[in-house]
Amino acid sequence: MKGVYEIGGFRLDTVERSLESAGRPVSLAPKALDVLIILVENRGRIVEKDDLMRKVWPDTFVEDNNLAFNVSVLRKLFGESGTSPHYIETVPKRGYRFIAEVREAVSEKTEPLAATPPLTQIIPRGSRFRLFGGLALAVLLVATALVVWRLVAPGGSPGSLAVLPFRALDVASADDSLEVGLTDALITRLSRSLSIPVRPMAAVLRYRDRSANPLTPGRALGVDAVLEGTFQKHEGKIRTTVRLLRERDGKVLYAGVFDEGIAELFRLEDTLSTELAGALILKLAPSKSAPGKRGTRDPVAYAAYLKGRYYWNQRTRESIHRAIDYFQEAITADPSDALAYAGLADAYLLLPSTERIPNAVMMPLARAAAERALQIDGGLAEAHASLGLLAENYDLDWAGAEREFRTANRLNPNYPTGRHWYAEYIGSMGRIQESQAEFERARSLDPLSAAIPADEAKIFWFDHQFEKSAALARRSLSFDPHFTLAHLMLGASLADLGDCSGAMAEVRPGVVDDSDLVLALQIFVDERCGFHTDALASLARLTGDGQAKGTPFMVAAGYAAVGDSDRAQKWLERTVAERDTGIVSLRSNPAFDRIRSSARFQQLLTSIRLK
């Protein structure tokens, strides 16, 4: 199989960018994986250090020790040292050479198709739109439905679906915006019109450069069926070919070919999603808002919106800033793009959690963007979810948060962020069983999300169920080994379980980034593990010269962790006055356990209706 290598007990897939050992996935940082792939692809040859650094960190200046660190990570993985290598040899003053035996893996093939022939539609542009005007369309859809019913019976229609990123058939047709745009459009339309979960764009993007077998990502995504598509440009037109495959046996449930003019991309997207929905004979649940309002018909705005959502999903300080730039670019290109306004609101909502910007600055901007989205499209689930988070974290309007989250989930039951945020909210309010059910729905919609299990770990930590919290944090890290919140939740849970060496390893510098949340959790872990002097040192970094460098809630959490009730209470009162993020967690957050019984703390909970 091209791009898949067996190295001792390891299996490296350079296309899927995955590493397995004994059939189990191995967590490896992206840059360490890059180094491994380059060395394996150049096995037996010296890879110069400068060349290696240019390939792993293109357009970025990094020091040599970054490369040395990642090589060290790989050597630890293989169980060797630099002095007696069996896998990676250091060539002094030059670079590295991969010296272990490498074999190309045997190709994994899809099982033969069943005897019943698949339905294949070839619909030229002109004839297709004539069909859309009359009785012929009804006949076509009925015939399609009958054939597909025969293909899927008696097992029934697929219960979940993943739309894999579309691929160009040749170099001349390659077009990143078309590959991503066509995939996103189809996911968006199908998730809003079908009664089954459709995996979100964030979950499938990692399979852009996949191997030939589309069932491999289908298994990883936990779906019943996968839709793969290719396209080819020729003389001003695009021919798009799609296949719907049943995951368990590779059987083709549907196949179609569509021709469209390049200038009519959005019509192509409409046609694909409409035809496919009809062919799948699934129960439709059409949106109640006017068609065409949600997104944009401007290709520049559309591409900018997609990039914004991509960076927003990374949840880092730098990525949120890039997301804001792209959402604003989309709005400039099309001021009527409701989704871009909703995306901008979400970016403003998350920015204060990544850097020291007061909620009083960002939350009014988030509100204005979400409300503008709803002025354009009152039925936009994304904007209602944004207002739900705003009501929870800034307005302290618990009834309003409940209402907005429920509205979002009613408008689009398959929007994973709406389910995720609602689960987090009701968990913070102590409704743990309901929260678990909502988290499960969110995971079923986006099974590879690192953020969903990390936030569920946080809810179980709040509920003092530390073993469950640790397990969920580890699940999050299996999807993204660098997800800071997961490391922090694992560290905090291990500290509460008495595993101090494990806890310290999770919250140490280099594993997690530098933020107020990180400092507050480091104080908590140090104090729990008996390192009071270290906890006070970290607290000094958070509070500075007494004026507090950190946000009010995190300063309060730091003082509470070391048992300074008076200062913790002072900063909690300031937290409420400034509407800083985190207030909703006060009813059970373990960071405040040492001051929870105080009368002032209980009075505060009563004043904000958390008691």
Give a brief description.
The chain is of the alpha+beta class and 611 residues long. Helices cover 54% and strands 11% of the residues.
Shape, principal axes of CA atoms:
globular
Helix content: 40-55%
Low-confidence stretches: 107-156, 280-293
At the fold tier of CATH, the topology name of one domain is: Rossmann fold
| Proportion of strand residues | 5-15%
CATH architecture of one domain: 3-Layer(aba) Sandwich
Instruction: Note the gap between the termini.
Output: 60 Å
CATH class type of one domain: Alpha Beta
CATH superfamily of one domain: ABC-type transport auxiliary lipoprotein component
Radius of gyration: 26 Å
What does this protein structure show overall?
Helices cover 54% and strands 11% of the residues. It is α+β, with helices and mostly antiparallel strands and 611 residues long. Among the domains are: 4-104, Orthogonal Bundle (Arc Repressor Mutant, subunit A); 120-279, 3-Layer(aba) Sandwich (Rossmann fold); 514-611. The strands form 3 sheets. Strands 9, 10, 11, 12, 13 and 14 form a 6-stranded mixed beta sheet that branches. Helix 10 (299-312) runs antiparallel to helix 11 (317-333), helix 12 (338-350) runs antiparallel to helix 13 (359-376) and helix 15 (398-411) runs antiparallel to helix 16. The chain is globular.
